[in-house]
């Protein structure tokens, strides 16, 4: 597993050095947007609609829109100055019963393992929570985001689940059409309870599967097997500077070839000039003496098999 965070659990004066690992993984099948015309994946660029141009990272700051179209801007050093001080500490504030927490508060689970020489303190906290039946409520900052967290034992591991703050949970009063009173028919209620009893069993997570993901993966495999595949076109080379440099180097090499040919080329040059002179002289004689008589065809040598 990849370590996503390193720090320590703090409760009282005890510090437990730990490493953090993500307890879940994304199994979603991610489909990209493809240009139908050529089969190329669509790319998204950082651009300014006002200037109608791409924006570089050094030209970008961050801002909060407090009114429509009006922003207050922050530079990175300003954001760094207001970050929590203990960004490497999971500070346990209270110990509570797990049943006191509505699952609505839970957000994302992580595994915590002992780091370096912290196995003794790690085992101490793990066993103390197991025997007491309590879990810790802590504060932690991960990637500049501060959140609540529940620290609890899970077999031989300490598990941490980030939690929403109370003001992040929407009130039930905002949900429309909720019944003000639960008036039900007793006979229907009895049948509903019987149905629940018949469907009641122990929780076995292995029997629940993502049917959509399975169907989508099967569809992808069928398309690949049937060669219903779109190939991304090769990008055209537009590096004119390199092309010009290669042409220039080739021209320079051609220019230096005659002078670098050596004695063999120098010796062959007079012979070539002599052959050229004889050819010109023969042409002149043919012109002066009229057409030449045709020569008799040569007899081919016949090879006799031994």
UniProtKB/TrEMBL annotation:
<comment type="similarity">
    <text>Belongs to the prokaryotic Ku family.</text>
</comment>
<feature type="domain" description="Ku">
    <location>
        <begin position="52"/>
        <end position="180"/>
    </location>
</feature>
<keyword id="KW-0238">DNA-binding</keyword>
<protein>
    <recommendedName>
        <fullName>Non-homologous end joining protein Ku</fullName>
    </recommendedName>
</protein>
<dbReference type="InterPro" id="IPR016194">
    <property type="entry name" value="SPOC-like_C_dom_sf"/>
</dbReference>
<comment type="subunit">
    <text>Homodimer. Interacts with LigD.</text>
</comment>
<keyword id="KW-0233">DNA recombination</keyword>
<feature type="compositionally biased region" description="Low complexity">
    <location>
        <begin position="257"/>
        <end position="291"/>
    </location>
</feature>
<comment type="function">
    <text>With LigD forms a non-homologous end joining (NHEJ) DNA repair enzyme, which repairs dsDNA breaks with reduced fidelity. Binds linear dsDNA with 5'- and 3'- overhangs but not closed circular dsDNA nor ssDNA. Recruits and stimulates the ligase activity of LigD.</text>
</comment>
<dbReference type="InterPro" id="IPR006164">
    <property type="entry name" value="DNA_bd_Ku70/Ku80"/>
</dbReference>
<feature type="compositionally biased region" description="Basic residues">
    <location>
        <begin position="292"/>
        <end position="306"/>
    </location>
</feature>
<feature type="region of interest" description="Disordered">
    <location>
        <begin position="257"/>
        <end position="306"/>
    </location>
</feature>
<dbReference type="Pfam" id="PF02735">
    <property type="entry name" value="Ku"/>
</dbReference>
<dbReference type="GO" id="GO:0006303">
    <property type="term" value="P:double-strand break repair via nonhomologous end joining"/>
</dbReference>
<keyword id="KW-0234">DNA repair</keyword>
<keyword id="KW-0227">DNA damage</keyword>
<dbReference type="GO" id="GO:0006310">
    <property type="term" value="P:DNA recombination"/>
</dbReference>
<dbReference type="InterPro" id="IPR009187">
    <property type="entry name" value="Prok_Ku"/>
</dbReference>
<dbReference type="GO" id="GO:0003690">
    <property type="term" value="F:double-stranded DNA binding"/>
</dbReference>
